[in-house]
């Protein structure tokens, strides 16, 4: 006890750094978020309910949630595959590809947006070949899924990769020497070890996709009831000075985001407990 | 490979050893601990195809679109007065936001890594919060607070202050959106390094600031540099939040990403890609620096292990 007290006194600056941290966070986002939620509570329940259940808004929830789920699922499979290949196999250009995985994280979403729509337009490098098979991506719901897949790509890879790197070879060898074939070892030993990380990456990719705006609005074409995502409706309502409508939908998104944050924190705690 | 052979030969020793048995066992062991070659090749090919489709092609289409009509056209797009004013505004914004978020990142990491206090996990989660909020909602929050029809709108108008559709609003939403980046780099790094070195320095009589400058800073240098570069790239590229608060006034409140959107919507594709190539270059530098940081980290760990 006395030792910890003495130690506490050695390093200075707790008051200063903690004070600045809380002041800055308070000014930049805690107070504004609080005030925003307060603003929503000044609305009557009817106004709020009407704003968040309009047909056009409900259609956008379906697309935003559905598209984000599909995109996160695609990322779950390909992200796990990419992490596996990057950790376990050797091939030329591996380091470069490993670095490129972070691109969706570093490239501005507006740039990604115009790049994707140019690629997948019916005259684009990819779109023209898909057109031959009758598949249209640009200005369809499929385009939304493509953009959301792009934006969520780093998350599963980057959560699974470190867990896979730390996985002891002994486990797999023990499984093999007990007579399991490779498929059984993957299914019964490797997959359970990766499971919390996979789920965390999935939740992160899903949460990111839900709120995404820049990379989607170019490729989606923003057709009412068909390819409008929820964030787009918020922008549209804010631009028309419909602050009540925008704030109501924004509150729904904020609450979902907080819920996702709780889920992700829980999953990360689970992952670290398993692999601490 | 080595260990599996050893293990195989140990298994072998228990039975009656013959050369062909040995081979067969090694083969069986490999089958049980590794994927067959054809499967490896297939998995690598599928992974590479996914990377090509989602990462390499979008990158290539930007660079191709930017330089398709030659350097002169590219330069013309960059030198356009609207583009230059967007670049100037974006540089001004990051000159304000990045130092503030750097200071915040260092302060938060110092408080969290060097001290024990109640509610630490909650503080760490709170720092992550801006990450979870849609950029569009971030913009909306400040429009509701400071917009002409927002809560503080009438008061601001009476005092002739403008935040929304002006530079201060853009600065605040970008500071909000990029707040976690440097702190998130530094917190795990400083937690992992502990506080023994600082305690030694302080016990020997160095001041707190001197200790930070000569002991802590060299240790976190690379993580800090990556955090700053990433924060800078994200600040320059922030789109959704800025789209809501900027009002897109040409030459006044158009940042680089908004200028790209304007060019694209006016069908000036080459110019849009030319301006995009600037931010793309920045993104590539960012991920290159991340690789350098990781490489340094690996080297340090290897040295520590040796």
Automatic annotation (TrEMBL), chain A:
<keyword id="KW-0472">Membrane</keyword>
<feature type="transmembrane region" description="Helical">
    <location>
        <begin position="65"/>
        <end position="87"/>
    </location>
</feature>
<dbReference type="InterPro" id="IPR011865">
    <property type="entry name" value="CysT_permease"/>
</dbReference>
<keyword id="KW-0812">Transmembrane</keyword>
<protein>
    <recommendedName>
        <fullName>Sulfate transport system permease protein CysT</fullName>
    </recommendedName>
</protein>
<dbReference type="Pfam" id="PF00528">
    <property type="entry name" value="BPD_transp_1"/>
</dbReference>
<feature type="transmembrane region" description="Helical">
    <location>
        <begin position="189"/>
        <end position="210"/>
    </location>
</feature>
<feature type="transmembrane region" description="Helical">
    <location>
        <begin position="99"/>
        <end position="121"/>
    </location>
</feature>
<feature type="transmembrane region" description="Helical">
    <location>
        <begin position="133"/>
        <end position="157"/>
    </location>
</feature>
<keyword id="KW-0764">Sulfate transport</keyword>
<comment type="function">
    <text>Part of the ABC transporter complex CysAWTP (TC 3.A.1.6.1) involved in sulfate/thiosulfate import. Probably responsible for the translocation of the substrate across the membrane.</text>
</comment>
<comment type="similarity">
    <text>Belongs to the binding-protein-dependent transport system permease family. CysTW subfamily.</text>
</comment>
<feature type="domain" description="ABC transmembrane type-1">
    <location>
        <begin position="61"/>
        <end position="264"/>
    </location>
</feature>
<feature type="transmembrane region" description="Helical">
    <location>
        <begin position="21"/>
        <end position="45"/>
    </location>
</feature>
<feature type="transmembrane region" description="Helical">
    <location>
        <begin position="243"/>
        <end position="264"/>
    </location>
</feature>
<comment type="function">
    <text>Part of the ABC transporter complex (TC 3.A.1.6.1) involved in sulfate/thiosulfate import.</text>
</comment>
<keyword id="KW-1133">Transmembrane helix</keyword>
<comment type="subunit">
    <text>The complex is composed of two ATP-binding proteins (CysA), two transmembrane proteins (CysT and CysW) and a solute-binding protein (CysP).</text>
</comment>
<dbReference type="InterPro" id="IPR035906">
    <property type="entry name" value="MetI-like_sf"/>
</dbReference>
<keyword id="KW-0813">Transport</keyword>
<dbReference type="InterPro" id="IPR000515">
    <property type="entry name" value="MetI-like"/>
</dbReference>
<dbReference type="InterPro" id="IPR005667">
    <property type="entry name" value="Sulph_transpt2"/>
</dbReference>
